[in-house]
Amino acid sequence: MNPFSLEGRTALVTGANTGIGQAVALSMGRAGARVICAGRRSCADTVRQLDDGREITLDLSDPMAARDVFSGEPVDILVNNAGIIRRGDAVDFSEADWDDVIDVNQKAVFFTCQAFARAVFARGGTGGIVNIASLLSFQGGIRIASYTAAKHAVAGITRILANEWAAKGINVNAIAPGYIATSNTEALRNDPARARAILDRIPAGRWGEAGDIAEAAVFLASPAARYIHGAILNVDGGWLAR
Ligand code: NAP
What we know:
Oligomer: single chain
Bound molecules: NADP nicotinamide-adenine-dinucleotide phosphate
Strand content: 15-25%
Shape: globular
Largest sheet: 7 strands, parallel
Radius of gyration: 17 Å
Order of helices and strands: EHEHEEHEHEHHHE
CATH class: Alpha Beta
Protein backbone atom coordinates (compact mmCIF):
# COMPACT_ATOMS: atom_id res chain seq x y z
CA MET A 1 0.00 0.00 0.00
CA ASN A 2 1.17 3.53 -0.81
CA PRO A 3 2.40 4.92 2.55
CA PHE A 4 1.30 8.42 1.53
CA SER A 5 -2.30 7.33 0.93
CA LEU A 6 -5.16 8.13 3.31
CA GLU A 7 -7.37 5.47 1.71
CA GLY A 8 -9.82 3.98 4.20
CA ARG A 9 -9.33 6.75 6.77
CA THR A 10 -11.74 9.38 7.99
CA ALA A 11 -10.40 12.88 8.68
CA LEU A 12 -12.07 15.72 10.54
CA VAL A 13 -10.81 19.21 9.67
CA THR A 14 -11.88 22.23 11.72
CA GLY A 15 -12.43 25.51 9.89
CA ALA A 16 -12.78 23.63 6.60
CA ASN A 17 -14.94 26.23 4.85
CA THR A 18 -12.08 28.44 3.66
CA GLY A 19 -8.33 29.12 3.59
CA ILE A 20 -5.87 26.53 4.86
CA GLY A 21 -8.60 24.29 6.32
CA GLN A 22 -10.40 24.05 2.99
CA ALA A 23 -7.15 23.23 1.19
CA VAL A 24 -6.30 20.55 3.76
CA ALA A 25 -9.76 19.00 3.45
CA LEU A 26 -9.50 18.85 -0.35
CA SER A 27 -5.95 17.42 -0.30
CA MET A 28 -6.93 14.78 2.24
CA GLY A 29 -9.89 13.91 0.02
CA ARG A 30 -7.59 13.56 -3.00
CA ALA A 31 -5.33 11.32 -0.89
CA GLY A 32 -8.31 8.99 -0.39
CA ALA A 33 -9.74 10.07 2.95
CA ARG A 34 -13.38 10.47 3.80
CA VAL A 35 -13.52 14.05 5.09
CA ILE A 36 -15.74 15.58 7.75
CA CYS A 37 -15.65 19.34 7.27
CA ALA A 38 -16.28 21.13 10.56
CA GLY A 39 -17.13 24.81 10.57
CA ARG A 40 -19.00 27.43 12.52
CA ARG A 41 -20.44 28.31 9.11
CA SER A 42 -21.45 26.07 6.23
CA CYS A 43 -18.67 24.08 4.57
CA ALA A 44 -20.91 23.30 1.58
CA ASP A 45 -18.43 24.76 -0.90
CA THR A 46 -15.73 22.37 0.35
CA VAL A 47 -18.04 19.35 0.57
CA ARG A 48 -19.16 19.93 -3.03
CA GLN A 49 -15.56 19.51 -4.18
CA LEU A 50 -15.06 16.25 -2.28
CA ASP A 51 -15.93 12.75 -3.55
CA ASP A 52 -16.65 11.55 -0.03
CA GLY A 53 -17.29 14.37 2.39
CA ARG A 54 -19.86 15.77 4.73
CA GLU A 55 -20.13 18.74 7.04
CA ILE A 56 -20.89 19.32 10.69
CA THR A 57 -21.40 22.53 12.62
CA LEU A 58 -18.70 23.15 15.21
CA ASP A 59 -18.27 26.56 16.82
CA LEU A 60 -15.05 26.41 18.81
CA SER A 61 -15.63 29.71 20.58
CA ASP A 62 -16.97 27.12 23.05
CA PRO A 63 -13.65 25.31 23.64
CA MET A 64 -15.51 22.16 24.73
CA ALA A 65 -17.72 22.12 21.62
CA ALA A 66 -16.11 18.95 20.23
CA ARG A 67 -16.75 16.86 23.34
CA ASP A 68 -19.30 14.57 21.62
CA VAL A 69 -18.16 14.93 18.02
CA PHE A 70 -16.08 11.74 17.99
CA SER A 71 -18.58 9.45 19.67
CA GLY A 72 -20.27 8.51 16.37
CA GLU A 73 -18.42 7.17 13.34
CA PRO A 74 -14.72 6.44 13.95
CA VAL A 75 -12.44 9.36 13.05
CA ASP A 76 -8.79 8.50 12.38
CA ILE A 77 -7.32 11.93 11.65
CA LEU A 78 -7.94 15.25 13.38
CA VAL A 79 -6.70 18.54 11.92
CA ASN A 80 -7.02 21.42 14.38
CA ASN A 81 -6.98 24.28 11.89
CA ALA A 82 -9.66 26.76 13.06
CA GLY A 83 -8.16 29.97 14.33
CA ILE A 84 -8.71 33.68 14.71
CA ILE A 85 -6.44 36.68 15.13
CA ARG A 86 -6.95 40.07 16.81
CA ARG A 87 -4.60 42.97 16.25
CA GLY A 88 -3.85 45.75 18.71
CA ASP A 89 -0.95 47.39 20.52
CA ALA A 90 -0.05 45.42 23.65
CA VAL A 91 -0.53 48.48 25.82
CA ASP A 92 -4.16 48.77 24.69
CA PHE A 93 -4.95 45.06 24.20
CA SER A 94 -8.40 44.20 25.57
CA GLU A 95 -9.37 41.24 27.74
CA ALA A 96 -11.98 40.24 25.16
CA ASP A 97 -9.34 40.09 22.40
CA TRP A 98 -7.20 38.01 24.73
CA ASP A 99 -9.94 35.56 25.80
CA ASP A 100 -11.55 35.12 22.37
CA VAL A 101 -8.27 34.11 20.74
CA ILE A 102 -7.10 31.90 23.62
CA ASP A 103 -10.45 30.06 23.62
CA VAL A 104 -10.38 29.16 19.90
CA ASN A 105 -6.65 28.91 19.18
CA GLN A 106 -5.46 27.29 22.41
CA LYS A 107 -8.11 25.90 24.75
CA ALA A 108 -10.26 24.41 21.97
CA VAL A 109 -7.18 22.78 20.42
CA PHE A 110 -6.38 20.93 23.64
CA PHE A 111 -9.92 19.82 24.40
CA THR A 112 -10.63 18.78 20.80
CA CYS A 113 -7.47 16.64 20.92
CA GLN A 114 -8.70 15.19 24.22
CA ALA A 115 -12.13 14.31 22.82
CA PHE A 116 -10.52 12.70 19.76
CA ALA A 117 -8.06 10.67 21.85
CA ARG A 118 -10.75 9.43 24.22
CA ALA A 119 -12.68 8.04 21.25
CA VAL A 120 -9.60 6.46 19.65
CA PHE A 121 -8.54 4.83 22.93
CA ALA A 122 -12.09 3.64 23.66
CA ARG A 123 -12.20 1.67 20.41
CA GLY A 124 -8.59 0.48 20.74
CA GLY A 125 -7.67 2.21 17.50
CA THR A 126 -4.91 4.41 16.19
CA GLY A 127 -4.93 7.94 14.86
CA GLY A 128 -3.12 11.08 13.87
CA ILE A 129 -3.45 14.70 14.94
CA VAL A 130 -2.12 17.65 12.94
CA ASN A 131 -2.31 20.98 14.75
CA ILE A 132 -1.88 24.18 12.78
CA ALA A 133 0.69 26.21 14.68
CA SER A 134 2.45 29.31 13.28
CA LEU A 135 5.72 31.18 12.95
CA LEU A 136 4.30 32.87 16.05
CA SER A 137 4.89 29.56 17.86
CA PHE A 138 8.56 30.59 17.72
CA GLN A 139 8.64 34.34 17.16
CA GLY A 140 7.05 37.27 18.94
CA GLY A 141 5.21 39.07 16.17
CA ILE A 142 3.82 42.58 16.51
CA ARG A 143 0.38 43.71 17.78
CA ILE A 144 -1.00 40.15 18.13
CA ALA A 145 -0.34 39.34 21.80
CA SER A 146 -3.05 36.71 22.33
CA TYR A 147 -2.32 35.03 18.99
CA THR A 148 1.38 34.69 19.81
CA ALA A 149 0.60 33.35 23.28
CA ALA A 150 -1.86 30.81 21.88
CA LYS A 151 0.41 29.64 19.06
CA HIS A 152 3.33 29.17 21.46
CA ALA A 153 0.90 27.05 23.48
CA VAL A 154 -0.04 24.98 20.42
CA ALA A 155 3.62 23.99 20.08
CA GLY A 156 3.70 22.95 23.74
CA ILE A 157 0.39 21.11 23.55
CA THR A 158 1.64 19.22 20.49
CA ARG A 159 4.75 18.11 22.35
CA ILE A 160 3.10 17.06 25.61
CA LEU A 161 0.39 15.11 23.81
CA ALA A 162 3.01 13.41 21.65
CA ASN A 163 4.83 12.37 24.82
CA GLU A 164 1.68 10.94 26.38
CA TRP A 165 0.14 9.34 23.31
CA ALA A 166 3.01 8.22 21.02
CA ALA A 167 3.11 4.78 22.63
CA LYS A 168 -0.69 4.58 22.65
CA GLY A 169 -1.13 4.79 18.89
CA ILE A 170 -1.73 8.48 18.21
CA ASN A 171 0.79 10.57 16.29
CA VAL A 172 0.57 14.21 17.38
CA ASN A 173 2.36 16.74 15.19
CA ALA A 174 1.98 20.31 13.98
CA ILE A 175 2.63 22.48 10.98
CA ALA A 176 3.95 26.01 11.33
CA PRO A 177 2.79 27.84 8.21
CA GLY A 178 4.65 30.92 7.09
CA TYR A 179 2.86 33.91 5.59
CA ILE A 180 -0.04 32.42 3.64
CA ALA A 181 -2.45 34.48 1.53
CA THR A 182 -5.75 33.89 3.36
CA SER A 183 -8.19 36.15 5.21
CA ASN A 184 -5.99 35.70 8.32
CA THR A 185 -3.29 37.84 6.67
CA GLU A 186 -5.51 40.23 4.73
CA ALA A 187 -4.65 43.20 6.96
CA LEU A 188 -0.93 42.61 6.37
CA ARG A 189 -1.32 42.29 2.62
CA ASN A 190 -3.40 45.48 2.54
CA ASP A 191 -0.55 47.39 4.23
CA PRO A 192 1.95 47.98 1.37
CA ALA A 193 4.94 48.64 3.67
CA ARG A 194 4.33 45.52 5.82
CA ALA A 195 3.55 43.38 2.78
CA ARG A 196 6.81 44.45 1.08
CA ALA A 197 8.89 43.93 4.22
CA ILE A 198 7.46 40.44 4.68
CA LEU A 199 7.96 39.46 1.05
CA ASP A 200 11.55 40.72 1.05
CA ARG A 201 12.35 38.38 3.97
CA ILE A 202 10.87 35.19 2.48
CA PRO A 203 13.66 33.15 0.84
CA ALA A 204 11.20 31.53 -1.56
CA GLY A 205 10.35 34.99 -2.88
CA ARG A 206 6.58 34.65 -2.64
CA TRP A 207 3.78 34.46 -0.10
CA GLY A 208 2.54 30.96 0.58
CA GLU A 209 -0.74 29.54 -0.69
CA ALA A 210 -3.14 27.42 1.34
CA GLY A 211 -2.27 24.48 -0.90
CA ASP A 212 1.37 24.72 0.20
CA ILE A 213 0.25 23.66 3.68
CA ALA A 214 -2.23 21.02 2.59
CA GLU A 215 0.11 18.34 1.25
CA ALA A 216 2.33 18.69 4.33
CA ALA A 217 -0.74 17.94 6.43
CA VAL A 218 -1.52 14.88 4.30
CA PHE A 219 2.03 13.63 4.84
CA LEU A 220 1.90 14.09 8.62
CA ALA A 221 -1.45 12.27 8.76
CA SER A 222 -0.28 9.39 6.56
CA PRO A 223 1.41 6.06 7.42
CA ALA A 224 4.62 7.57 5.96
CA ALA A 225 4.87 9.70 9.12
CA ARG A 226 4.35 6.76 11.51
CA TYR A 227 7.57 7.44 13.49
CA ILE A 228 7.11 11.23 13.62
CA HIS A 229 5.86 12.40 17.01
CA GLY A 230 5.87 15.91 18.46
CA ALA A 231 7.34 17.50 15.34
CA ILE A 232 6.50 21.03 14.27
CA LEU A 233 7.08 21.17 10.53
CA ASN A 234 7.84 24.66 9.22
CA VAL A 235 6.18 25.26 5.87
CA ASP A 236 7.26 28.83 5.46
CA GLY A 237 9.21 29.36 2.25
CA GLY A 238 12.37 29.37 4.35
CA TRP A 239 11.36 32.22 6.71
CA LEU A 240 12.70 30.59 9.89
CA ALA A 241 15.90 29.49 8.20
CA ARG A 242 16.82 33.11 7.60
P1 NAP B 1 -8.89 31.96 7.63
O1 NAP B 1 -9.08 31.92 6.16
O2 NAP B 1 -9.31 33.13 8.40
O3 NAP B 1 -9.54 30.63 8.23
C1 NAP B 1 -9.74 30.44 9.60
C2 NAP B 1 -10.74 29.32 9.77
O4 NAP B 1 -11.02 29.14 11.16
C3 NAP B 1 -12.07 29.65 9.10
O5 NAP B 1 -12.63 28.47 8.57
C4 NAP B 1 -12.88 30.15 10.27
O6 NAP B 1 -14.27 30.12 10.07
C5 NAP B 1 -12.43 29.17 11.33
N1 NAP B 1 -12.86 29.61 12.64
C6 NAP B 1 -12.61 30.78 13.25
N2 NAP B 1 -13.24 30.83 14.44
C7 NAP B 1 -13.91 29.66 14.57
C8 NAP B 1 -14.74 29.11 15.57
N3 NAP B 1 -15.08 29.79 16.65
N4 NAP B 1 -15.24 27.88 15.37
C9 NAP B 1 -14.94 27.17 14.27
N5 NAP B 1 -14.18 27.65 13.28
C10 NAP B 1 -13.66 28.87 13.44
O7 NAP B 1 -7.35 31.82 7.96
P2 NAP B 1 -6.28 30.67 7.64
O8 NAP B 1 -5.03 31.38 7.30
O9 NAP B 1 -6.81 29.66 6.70
O10 NAP B 1 -6.10 30.06 9.09
C11 NAP B 1 -6.15 28.68 9.36
C12 NAP B 1 -5.18 28.37 10.48
O11 NAP B 1 -3.86 28.63 10.02
C13 NAP B 1 -5.37 29.21 11.74
O12 NAP B 1 -5.15 28.41 12.89
C14 NAP B 1 -4.27 30.25 11.61
O13 NAP B 1 -3.88 30.77 12.85
C15 NAP B 1 -3.19 29.42 10.98
N6 NAP B 1 -2.11 30.16 10.35
C16 NAP B 1 -2.34 30.95 9.27
C17 NAP B 1 -1.28 31.63 8.69
C18 NAP B 1 -1.44 32.52 7.49
O14 NAP B 1 -0.46 33.16 7.10
N7 NAP B 1 -2.59 32.61 6.88
C19 NAP B 1 0.00 31.50 9.21
C20 NAP B 1 0.19 30.69 10.31
C21 NAP B 1 -0.87 30.00 10.87
P3 NAP B 1 -15.04 31.40 9.47
O15 NAP B 1 -14.81 31.39 7.99
O16 NAP B 1 -16.45 31.18 9.87
O17 NAP B 1 -14.43 32.62 10.11
